[in-house]
Backbone:
């Protein structure tokens, strides 16, 4: 049975304690092969001695910068891979967004016995570079989920092509807006490189293909339950001339699904990222025009599977980057997009097994 644990460092004690995580499942992503857990799980504390004889025990570190719906789905994929492979995962996620805390926790977890691989998700591309270098020096397979500049020394970087995703959204907005109008951007955490790439793709597309469409405002820290409401309300007051509201993250436009209709602004085109329940319902009800869904489950699965392949099959990555694809979702495919996501995952997994890892 696969063991789900999270890690916390206890002072300077020689004994290290693996603590349980409350996986706050605000929503689950589309790709379910099999379905990621949808309940809040508290796992019994496990005490591990540093001198433990590992035997057949293998532990894979899966590290994220916060607890978030997307990361809950990512964790579900990692758990499914661990169950299938008969290994354990050490899941790390600070309750609130903190790359610095993530770094501290991951560094401590790396000192645990029986570590067989390390995978990280981050919005700050190089903050965990030292961890990845240390892991590789220990002979461990590594992956990074997110933007990966050349300086990041991981075996494989896998993520959505964020810039291209921004271009895809811009193309759809151009069709809906008739080549002119005003867009307000709902940004995530300040400095998030992923969101910067998405915004750059959007603005570059407009500049090249629809110069009559202008980004008139950018609202910050919208990708959380409080921020999504604040940003929607601020957009209504500060930018009454807006024609479209572009979300850069999972929760960014959730607030708009309530605030805009209540303000009588059904005319504003609202976009989403991923498939939070509010976004899916918004598409069904017409308060959200469209979203694009990423591959959090598949990314989480591969975060365990790829380091496992490196350890057990002696393979290495033949590529620096793996694009895990997006699926555009609107009313025309709201009932079938999950099938598309499942097929994408199976195709990506086959690509990894036959071409990427050799």
Residues:
């Amino acid at each position: 049975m696969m063991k789900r644990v999270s890690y916390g460092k206890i002072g300077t004690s020689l004994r290290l304690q693996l603590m349980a995580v409350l996986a706050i499942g605000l929503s689950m992503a589309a790709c379910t092969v099999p379905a990621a857990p949808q309940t809040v799980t508290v796992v019994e504390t496990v005490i591990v001695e540093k001198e433990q004889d590992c035997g057949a025990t293998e532990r894979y570190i899966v590290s994220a910068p916060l607890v978030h719906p997307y990361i809950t789905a990512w964790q579900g994929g990692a758990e499914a891979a661990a169950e299938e492979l008969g290994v354990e995962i050490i899941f790390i996620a600070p309750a609130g967004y903190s790359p610095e805390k993530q770094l501290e926790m991951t560094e401590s977890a790396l000192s645990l016995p029986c570590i067989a691989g390390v995978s990280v998700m981050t919005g700050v591309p190089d903050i965990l570079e030292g961890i990845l270098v240390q892991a590789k020096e220990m002979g461990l397979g590594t992956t990074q989920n997110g933007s990966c500049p050349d300086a990041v020394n991981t075996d494989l970087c896998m993520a959505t092509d964020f810039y291209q995703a921004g271009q895809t959204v811009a193309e759809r907005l151009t069709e809906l807006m008739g080549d002119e109008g005003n867009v307000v951007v709902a940004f995530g955490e300040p400095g998030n490189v992923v969101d910067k790439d998405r915004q750059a793709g959007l603005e570059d597309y407009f500049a090249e293909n629809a110069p009559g469409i202008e980004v008139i405002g950018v609202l910050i820290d919208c990708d959380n339950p409080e921020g999504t409401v604040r940003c929607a309300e601020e957009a209504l007051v500060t930018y009454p001339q807006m024609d479209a509201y572009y979300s850069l993250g999972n929760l960014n436009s959730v607030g708009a699904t309530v605030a805009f209709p209540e303000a009588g602004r059904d005319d504003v085109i609202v976009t989403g990222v991923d498939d939070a329940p509010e976004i899916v319902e918004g598409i069904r009800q017409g308060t959200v025009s469209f979203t694009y869904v990423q591959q959090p489950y598949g990314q989480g699965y591969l975060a365990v599977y790829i380091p496992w392949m490196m350890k057990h099959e002696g393979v290495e990555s033949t590529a620096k980057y793996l694009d895990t694809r997006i699926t555009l979702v609107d009313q025309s495919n709201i009932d079938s997009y999950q099938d598309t996501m499942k097929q994408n995952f199976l195709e990506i997994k086959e690509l990894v097994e036959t071409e990427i890892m050799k």
Confidence is low (pLDDT under 50) at residues 6-50. The chain has two domains: 4-160+295-325+335-356, 162-293.
